[in-house]
Specification:
heterodimer; A: mainly beta; 2 domains; 13% helix; B: mainly beta; Porin; 3 domains; 34 strands
């Protein structure tokens, strides 16, 4: 299954503009930035009921995000990919960037998470069968602060698992292993939760800490980004 | 209680402080510093905490601005009126500066330890020094014990350290520091289970001798008691029973640049960067079309304008784009630049590799920021995007205009205006310690070209008492001591000037202003500033030929004329956002001397600044306060409202009233205009580039 990102067709359009006059350039700018959905299938409505049929019809990488403690749920569409980092955007242009199942950046949601450094064997960032998950790992969370690096919060996390269970995300049921990740660093403690497909290591649902100002974000993966 | 134990109560309390418990946050004393009631503690406020306190008791009332200038250094500026000080019914108006330095913070086992000086470098009414330790002993109880000198060594002294000089009016006194009798003090603070409620009790070493000479204050007991309540964070109330005969009340309003009222970073996110594919089209033929720049800019401009970004000039080739951009909304330039770069990475043909953005401020092209598109693509979203991008970005001084033939946006003449409420609080002039106005200010700017503008400002008093009953100054050069005379009901013409900002060289800025420069003076002033962007210091000079304006006549002048001139050194230390400025020259009253200014600026846009001016004018002729000094607090609107805006509100204390060391108060000076655009500032705020 190919779940491309939103801007890929637009890039093609821009590439074409250089050899065919200026008009396509202008069209591309307006198409990509001013009305980014103009060239795309209509995203499943936030207000209306999200169905699996609509998601399939949409045909793009899609996640559902909700700040813990708030009622509003947002659909975010995969719009850019840099290396393995995928940026999802809501209709209000709020961004969530993910590396695999790990949230590594947020924008416009309050208290931006600038970036996250992870270990090379971080199973949240790189899809890994659950049997191979490490017990501990480290991360650096970067937030706005003085200097180019901002404020870095380094944490050490320990992973524990519990009995397999079943979750349903928009009409699809997954058999998953819940993992609890307890992280502790200088002056901060938080606990992330991941519901992970046992065989593949694909994280379908998670509750992740994105900073002291915002707290946690719930992520449901409705359609994962994939290059397959 | 046996007397021997009573006398050494503070030492006993300090001994209790060995119990293991974590530190509690500092609370405010009656006079607005961190402390118990009249006595200090070793606790300090959170870094950058800024607090306004209004307090009163039977002996003293007034206001205090407390600022945690560094994580372990607390400063407080008091504007207090002491009743019956020089005689029955004769009050003393006292401006004083307190410093407290926390030598080390509390640990699980050791108390915090601090040393401080009240009425620093002045042997006045509140002059005292102390060493104090505080420790949280658990269950919400904090114990404090200390040793005081001066006022804090007055009650039952235990020893003496030399002879303390008698109080004097000497504006720079240091012989008294930690000299004379010393006495023990101490106390308890208990955070009650009711949220926001705390109780205090202290043993005071202040004998209140001065208050008893002429007034009817009676020192019955050294024990003071207080109850404090914080209904919401940032608002604190205190009620106190003191010395067995007196009551006190306190209201403190506090804020912190690190603790915005509204969530930061809430709003529209940036455009995501997508890398060009490896085999992207490198052809630059599209640039041969002469209409391409206009068409591209026509498409880019409406994308950027909703975020307050206006393209002034553009030059686009097959490989490079140069944009001169005015940022009207975003508080951080680096955030604005980052967003433009992201937009360009999505919007421009693939052959454009070099992005150059030059922010324009008050018509002046500042620093050109050059980023390679391939770097942007390779760094975005990565863990080290911040430091890596700063390392690969080039900064250089911009020419004030792009070369001839550049696309320039036809946006002039441009008219802007605004109406804002202004609430000055006058705590600096004797006899008017509680005066306050509520004003409505209307300002307008008509920009004829990028550098040339006409600017005006009118103020109407809505309600207030500043200037009420003011009489003309007896000073031979009343350049500021007649300040109150100018505070009529209005409308008051604060400013009506023609201003021209330009550059002499890429790193030398210049400005000429003429007209009604400020409320009290009109004339012509010119300024030049040399400050290369890669340098953390600059040199400036300003010369003005001015005439004093009349009180009651909006357009009239008085006879007094003078020429004022200054050379200035600016230094951005890069340490905790601290900047320093030294001005040397001739002031409005003809006196010659130096002004030293220090400010601390925060990433959120807060700024706290203070200045002291010393000139050859005798202290006796200076007017109020013996020499010119002042404190200004600037709070950005973005901190209080969920808006992307560069607007801010400033509150000034003590900047008027004295004739010595009086500067011309023109509009924004060059350094204020360009100081956000040098490499030191870009380094400090570069984290926002990816926001």
């Amino acid at each position: 299954m190919i779940r491309p990102i939103l801007a890929a067709p637009a890039l093609g359009l821009l590439a074409a503009c250089s050899s065919s006059g200026t008009s396509p350039v202008v069209t591309a700018i307006k198409g990509v930035i001013l009305s980014s959905t103009a060239e795309q299938p209509e995203a499943p409505s936030v207000g209306g009921k999200v169905t699996r049929e609509k998601i399939e019809e949409f045909g793009l990488a899609l996640i559902r995000g909700r700040i813990e403690g708030e009622d509003l749920t947002n659909l975010l569409t995969g719009t850019a990919v840099n290396d393995q980092y995928v940026t999802y955007i809501s209709s209000f242009r709020q961004n969530i960037t993910m590396l695999g199942g790990l949230v590594t950046g947020t924008r416009g949601m309050g208290g931006d998470l600038l970036a996250v450094r992870n270990d090379a064997n971080d199973p949240i960032a790189y899809i890994t069968p659950t049997d191979d998950w490490p017990v501990t790992l480290t991360r650096d969370y970067r937030f706005p602060g003085v200097g180019p690096s901002g404020d870095t919060l380094s944490v050490t996390c320990s992973l524990t698992t519990s009995a397999a269970t079943v979750i349903t995300i928009v009409e699809v049921t997954y058999e998953v292993t819940p993992f609890t990740e307890s992280c502790e660093g200088y002056g901060v403690e938080f606990t992330n939760t991941y519901f992970t497909e046992t065989d593949t290591g694909q994280i379908w649902q998670s509750l992740q800490w994105i900073g002291e100002k915002v707290g946690y974000v719930n992520i449901d993966v409705l359609e994962p980004y994939s290059l397959e | 209680m046996p007397k021997s134990l009573f006398r050494h109560l503070p030492a006993g309390l300090a001994l209790i402080a060995t119990t293991v418990a974590s530190a509690q946050s500092a609370s405010f004393s009656l006079n607005g510093t961190s402390g118990l009631i009249d006595m200090p503690t070793a606790q300090v406020l959170p870094d950058a905490e800024t607090a306004w306190t209004f307090s009163g008791s039977g002996t003293v009332y007034g206001g205090t601005l407390t600022f945690q200038i560094l994580p372990n250094l607390e400063t407080s500026v008091h504007f207090m009126t002491v009743n019956d000080w020089t005689g029955l019914g004769e009050a003393l108006f006292d401006q004083s500066l307190d410093l407290k330095y926390q030598i080390f913070a509390e640990t699980d086992t050791l108390p915090s330890l601090a040393v401080g000086s009240n009425d620093f470098l002045s042997n006045g009414a509140f002059s005292s020094e102390y060493i104090v330790a505080s420790k949280n002993v658990g269950h919400g109880l904090t114990v404090t014990g200390g040793l005081g000198w001066g006022r804090l060594g007055g009650y039952r002294p235990i020893a003496s350290l030399g002879q303390r000089p008698a109080p004097s009016d000497d504006p720079l006194a240091y012989d008294q520091l930690f000299r004379g009798d010393m006495a023990l003090f101490g106390g308890l603070e208990w955070d009650a289970p009711v949220k926001g409620l705390s109780l205090k009790a202290e043993y005071s070493s202040d004998a209140y001798l001065g208050e008893q000479v002429h007034g009817d204050f009676e020192h019955v007991s050294p024990l003071n008691f207080g109850i404090e309540y914080e209904p919401i964070r940032g608002v604190s109330l205190g009620g106190y029973y003191k010395y067995g005969s007196d009551f006190g009340l306190r209201l403190t309003i506090s804020g912190n640049p690190y603790r915005p009222i509204v969530p930061s970073d809430f709003g529209i996110g940036p455009v995501p960067v997508n890398p060009r594919l490896g085999d992207y089209n490198r052809s630059e033929k599209w640039a041969d079309n002469s209409l391409v720049t206009e068409l591209l800019v026509s498409a880019l401009a409406p994308v950027l304008e909703p975020e307050g970004l206006v393209i002034e000039q553009a030059l686009i080739t097959g490989n490079t784009i140069d944009l001169y951009v005015t940022n009207n909304n975003m508080p951080q330039t680096t955030k604005a630049v980052g967003r433009i770069m992201r937009t360009l990475s999505v919007a421009l043909p693939h052959s454009v590799e070099v992005f150059r953005i030059t922010p324009v401020a008050s018509g002046l092209a500042t620093t050109t920021i050059e980023v390679r598109r391939s770097d942007l693509e390779a760094q975005v979203d990565r863990p080290d995007a911040g430091p890596d991008s700063f390392a690969t970005t080039r900064f250089f001084d911009a020419a004030n205009n792009l070369p001839d033939g550049t696309w320039s946006r036809d946006i002039y003449p441009d008219f802007t205006w605004g109406i804002i409420p202004v609430i000055p609080v006058n705590l600096a002039v004797n006899g008017a310690a509680a005066s306050i106005d509520v004003l409505l200010n209307a300002n307008a700017s008509y920009r004829l070209s990028r550098g040339l503008s006409l600017n005006g400002s009118l103020t109407q008093k809505l309600i207030g008492n500043i200037g009420t009953g003011a009489v003309p100054s007896a000073s031979p050069t009343p350049v500021r001591s007649d300040f109150a005379q100018y505070q009529t009901g209005g409308p008051i013409l604060d400013r009506l000037t023609a201003d021209y900002d330009f550059k002499l060289t890429p790193s030398t800025y210049a400005r000429v202003s003429a007209g009604y420069l400020e409320r009290m003076f009109g004339g012509v002033t010119g300024e030049a500033l040399w400050m290369p962007t890669n340098q953390n210091w600059g040199i400036g000079a300003e010369v003005g030929a001015v005439q004093q304006r009349a009180y009651g006549d909006m357009f009239g002048f008085k006879d007094y004329q003078t020429v004022t001139a200054h050379a200035s050194l600016y230094w951005d230390t890069g340490y905790h956002g601290i900047e320093a400025q030294i001005d040397v020259g001739k002031y409005l009253a003809g006196d010659v001397g130096t002004t030293v200014s220090v400010s601390r600026r925060f990433e959120s846009g807060w700024e706290v600044s203070g200045f002291v001016a010393m000139t050859d004018m005798p202290f006796s002729e200076y007017g109020e306060g013996n020499f010119s000094k002042g404190v200004t607090l600037t709070i950005p609107l973005r901190w209080t409202m969920p808006l992307e805006t560069r607007s801010s509100t400033s509150i000034a204390l003590g900047a008027v009233g004295g004739d010595g060391g009086a500067h011309l108060q023109t509009g924004e000076r060059l350094y204020s205009t360009i100081r956000d655009y040098d490499v030191v500032d870009f380094n400090e705020t570069w984290g926002a580039f990816w926001q």
